[in-house]
């Protein structure tokens, strides 16, 4: 990684993919960001985000105009323990977790078929690849008359 690229990653919001297949994609801005796995098979890509205690309501996933998959997570919790007679707080805890990550999608992702689910504290996003037939339709040669 060049020094200028490293400084860019530290000054701006972290990006898991500067380029989808770049070796520098593991660089994160801080240790509080959830762990992310990216798995490729012949038919799809899978993105797994460690999200213990999170539910599907805590996530927002969308495609940006720049061909990025944007994953946002936000959770607020407040725990109160009161002295029942005097109504004084003995302990009061606030918790706020917020995370956003943009992943640049490869060109072969079938965007209309992306789906996601949360199971056992892991958000899994499935990104199906285009079939050879679908790729051929996109790369159709235009006949000149």
TrEMBL record:
<dbReference type="InterPro" id="IPR008978">
    <property type="entry name" value="HSP20-like_chaperone"/>
</dbReference>
<keyword id="KW-0346">Stress response</keyword>
<dbReference type="InterPro" id="IPR031107">
    <property type="entry name" value="Small_HSP"/>
</dbReference>
<dbReference type="Pfam" id="PF00011">
    <property type="entry name" value="HSP20"/>
</dbReference>
<protein>
    <submittedName>
        <fullName>Heat shock protein Hsp20</fullName>
    </submittedName>
</protein>
<comment type="similarity">
    <text>Belongs to the small heat shock protein (HSP20) family.</text>
</comment>
<dbReference type="InterPro" id="IPR002068">
    <property type="entry name" value="A-crystallin/Hsp20_dom"/>
</dbReference>
<feature type="domain" description="SHSP">
    <location>
        <begin position="26"/>
        <end position="145"/>
    </location>
</feature>
